[in-house]
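Standup notes
- HV: blocked on the assembly model, inputs below
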Amino acid sequence: MPTKDIGFERWTRKLKRIEEKVERLALLSQLGQILNSTLDHKEIRRRAIEAATQLMKAEAGSLLLVDEGKRQLYFEVALSDREEDIKMIPLRFGEGIAGCVAQNGKPLIVNSPKKDRRFFKGVDERTDFKTRNIICVPVKVKEKIIGVLEAINKQERGGFNKEDLSLFVSLADQVAIALDNSRLYQELEEMFFQTTDSLADAIEKRDPYTGGHTQRVTQYSLAIAKYFQLKPLEKKWLKITSVLHDIGKVGIEDQILKKPERLTSKEFEMIKRHCDIGVEIVEHVRQLRESIPGVKYHHEQLDGKGYPSGLKGDEIPVLAKIVAVADTFDAMTTDRPYRRAMDKQAAIKELERCSGTQFDKKVVEAFIQAYQKGEI
Amino acid sequence: MPTKDIGFERWTRKLKRIEEKVERLALLSQLGQILNSTLDHKEIRRRAIEAATQLMKAEAGSLLLVDEGKRQLYFEVALSDREEDIKMIPLRFGEGIAGCVAQNGKPLIVNSPKKDRRFFKGVDERTDFKTRNIICVPVKVKEKIIGVLEAINKQERGGFNKEDLSLFVSLADQVAIALDNSRLYQELEEMFFQTTDSLADAIEKRDPYTGGHTQRVTQYSLAIAKYFQLKPLEKKWLKITSVLHDIGKVGIEDQILKKPERLTSKEFEMIKRHCDIGVEIVEHVRQLRESIPGVKYHHEQLDGKGYPSGLKGDEIPVLAKIVAVADTFDAMTTDRPYRRAMDKQAAIKELERCSGTQFDKKVVEAFIQAYQKGEI
């Protein structure tokens, strides 16, 4: 408790300091919300850097993540413009301020880096950045160090202090939680895609001539999407649709699916059923409903000569149009029992020839762009 | 800025108030971390109640979630011991303090509930709880109201005030973020299970006599797990293993898989391959590695007479032992072309007869317990 003889000046200073603390704690809480309100790993990393800079009132912030295999740290996002320069500089455990913090897990303030043996001059030298002072704390998930959060050059005079440190440790804890939730989400997403892909692959393996077909169609579809201005959510659905487009083949009999000769027209009618069988499978899963149009209509043609419904032009959903091109290109460029694979150049010519009648012109254009950039 | 003539008493009060604010902001930040450090929806709900009670220094807290279809709120977790009583009381939009907040999205403090028309007396009447004052804020995700957070009966005199409200709104925002992340995670998880299940179902549909087999085996396995003391993570793997146990059948030819007569011993050797084919599919997915033992060994027997490896006793992984019982029970209780389904009672007798030779005794015991509780 204060005593009565504390002078007015000291009171005012004390009050000002504590009011500042209130502001910074409110900011910390707000930054924690911002960090946790996305599950996108890259976005969290970006927000963590911004938060570090803002909360520490610093010139710059950086986040270094641990590469456990190599026992080194790498800069994730860093000093804005100089990002590219700095990304290439890995720091070994025990090397530099950040390397020390990553190694022993203890926060560190260095207000005279030039005098500190631990300071790693490499970054300043390569980036023209002058480090005056630095605050650096470990980012820990359940006692495991996954990275290091730094703020560099406090804007106010006097360097970083204990109060900064306590706030910065709390921020690093929030960053750790957000990164860990995002990691869990992304692992689950990867598990979904890989499992579905693996099952789709197994389903197509019954047909020995299409091994790897699903993966290639997915790769081609996503390459098209890059030059086609799809929204992120549409890209996600394109990926899922590509993986699932042929799963209806599970319902086609061996003797037709594996027949080495050309199919009779009756047999071809049976094969056509894979679109509808695919829909039957997919529509059981509420969360897959957006993939239904692509699974159903990836054999439709602009001129109405496709199947199963003979849709024309814009009646065909865009994801189906994209999968159609990817699917056909892969069919042309892989061996069939009754013909050899075309080379890619010839297959591109064929796509161009059928552009506007069988295939959507813009989709073919995007495909060719991706091909010319070496992405197909 | 303060002026010199402010008396000592007022200074001290002001300082005390602001120091308390620092404490509460630090607590808010800590509670935000606690809320976000799990993706388990139920656990977040529990922590939200605790946080509300603690931050508001209240006697009790509660979280009500919106049921959009019915336009009503239901208590998620509430006043500890009285939880069960209160869970049964739904509140319509516009009904009671919480119902008003859910309807118009504005926070509310009511320090004399008895005098307030909006106060809903049902809860007090049914629970013997005396509400003296109440603070209630909406829980919003992107402007959408998903629930209402309440704290009841401030421990200090004077009721809830503006400062409480500002802190409580921040807490509700943290709760909203944590609940939304958890929802996204759980939706993805559901998508994974439903898709895999749907594909497994399609794969088994090639065999018309086993429709719904995958779902039933999964249901039986999880019923066994309930009486078998599995850890939560083991339960998760049991579920995945059950869904995937027969996917290797995708590699078995139609003429064997769909043969209506009894298989010859040569054909049976072909069928046995589904365990190894299943492993080939599953091992492509890094995140599914824990399911390999169950997929591979779900046809092993304690006495070593099973396949594919003739493992004995404890050599057989526990998840494989569980799936084996679930799988066999379903095989016995469904029709086959060459025999009718057994009734459940007879199938249970058969499991008991083979307990200790073919099946693990403890697994059979757990199965019977689940059966007697009506869960199978």
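- HV (later): unblocked. Chain B touches chain A through 62 residues (CB under 8 Å). The beta strands of chain B are 58-67, 72-77, 90-92, 108-110, 134-141, 144-154.
- Next: hand off to the docking folks.
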